[in-house]
Amino acid sequence: MERRTREGYEGTGPGAITPDGCAVELYARLPVGDEPDVIAAAVPARARILELGSGVGRMTHALLERGFEVTAVDESAEMLERVRGARTICGPIERLDLDETFDVVLLASFLVHAGDVEVRRGMLRTCVRHLAKGGCVLIQREGEDYHTNVPRERVDPAGFTVRIVSAEPAGDGVDSVHAEYVFPDATWTQTFRARPLTREQFEEALAEAGLKVDRYLTEDRMWVRAVPMSAT
Q1: Which of 51, 77, 175, 227 has the fewest beta carbons under 10 Å from its own?
Q2: DSSP label at 114?
Q3: Between residues 1 and 145, which one has the greater pLDDT?
Q4: Which has the closest alpha carbon to 166: 188, 185, 146?
Q5: 207 in helix, strand or coil?
Q6: What pTM was estimated for this model as a whole?
Q7: Any residues with CB less than 8 A from the CB of 166 and at least 6 apart, and which?
Q8: Given strand 161-171, what is the order of strands in its sheet?
Q9: Separation of first and last alpha carbons in the chain
Q10: In Å, what is the CA distance from 210 to each residue of 106, 125, 228, 231?
């Protein structure tokens, strides 16, 4: 089935490509880092987690192993086919309305930097709409030099290379970012739109949705615990 790719997003390489240019086979290969430990340290044990943008379940599976109950949401059915052990829901994050709430809502993968401001607003509204009383939203931000330290590359211990080749202005404060993932047997590329947000701009975007920073969870301030502004 052919689906319309989101404007400004594309991907190349073996296997299925999602509407935002992500390659399913690529993400099935990528290892999970220390993010599950960051999350586990910031939320109650055995919390119910709504994971927005789960992809193939790299984070999902690690969180399940730590005893959390996870509902995984992604707009790609091909991605969700790789998820095991969690309830899955296929659809755009910004329009999600499950009529239920969770202890934790997780918005990782720099999704808060969506190039389209209305998409970002919709995602943050989804976070708030699904948050139980006393719950929190965990958000992953871009690094502060994400758009300026280019080109750059990182060789992963697993034996592949990640390159951020370019970040070119695409108008209205948005950059078109081009990334490459080079494995010994295959290469994937992804082009996507991302909106740089300073710390102040990020906190303003949260406030617009009725959220505030509870605390930054990592030294680089890339992981954030946010709570409703009404929380004491």
Answers
A1: 77
A2: B
A3: 145
A4: 146
A5: helix
A6: 0.95
A7: 150, 151, 176, 177, 178
A8: 10-12, 187-194, 174-182, 161-171, 152-155
A9: 48
A10: 16, 9, 6, 10
